[in-house]
Amino acid sequence: MPTSRNTESAHVFAVRLMQHLVVPTFVLNAERRVIIWNKACERLTGVPAHEVIGTTNHWRAFYDQERHCLADLVVLGCPDTMDQLYVTHTEPSDCAHGLRAENWCVMPQVKKRLYLAVDAGPIYDEEGNLLAVVETLRDQTEQKLAQMALQSLAVKDGLTGLANRRSFDEKLEAEWLHNQREGTSMAILLVDVDHFKLYNDTYGHQKGDTCLKAVAAALDQQVFRPADLAARYGGEEFAVIMPNTDLDGALHVADRIQEAVQAMNLPHGASLTAECVTLSIGAAALLPSDDHAAADLVAAADAALYRAKRQGRNRVVCTDRVEELAEA
Known about the structure:
Number of strands: 11
Structural class: alpha+beta
CATH class of the largest domain: Alpha Beta
Distance between the termini: 94 Å
Number of domains: 2
């Protein structure tokens, strides 16, 4: 049988061991008060132990507004609220085995935003009463930023920062099906920088890239509904997907885009149309149905764009009927 002195010695050893762990760790008692705040936790958060020991203010080390940390959820027995508090988390099927989650934290004292992976595990006595909850923290910021960068490369155009062609194709199919179910119109703009080959030949490819980035920025500023998508379609051509939009709505956006690019007044001395960079835009809108596919909407916008170029460029031409493809 262990003596009380042995038990006390073991407790002191455990506390000292936890204090010197390289993993940032803090411990809450059954009243959610901090009883251990180890040195690694001090380094991570910039909060010294004496400021939090005995208090329930540990949240101040991670957030600028009061909210529960993962260990609090274990003490309170409410793991179901993790959805509201954490970006990623394990299913709270059995709180007795602890919780795991990941989240961005603002870290007010060190004044930098960190992505932390968090584990919180309960400690019970022999009768099953909760004694404490141990929360450990791992800084995963570099890994998260690398993951976000890879994800961004997969969906964004490297030059302009707009969505890439793959994102456009996926969005087009998804919104076509959604608008078909809802019975609402869907619109597309195809946008071409007029005489862009001549621009490159005159000013060089680096200036050409700068021009494309400027046009993309103007496009992005004018396509601001959350459901819409502006993408680089290929080369000097851009595209805009507008769910739940009729032709009048599409033309309104097209006019805004043209005005924004004209307002930049980018010189284009070699242009056969104007002395500055201009756009030709083809607009189309359709009510998705079983009679047509999403590709028909793109083809209609492409036909309208072709007519805009044939009619002298620097203009918006529209169609809302797939049958008009035959005219192109």
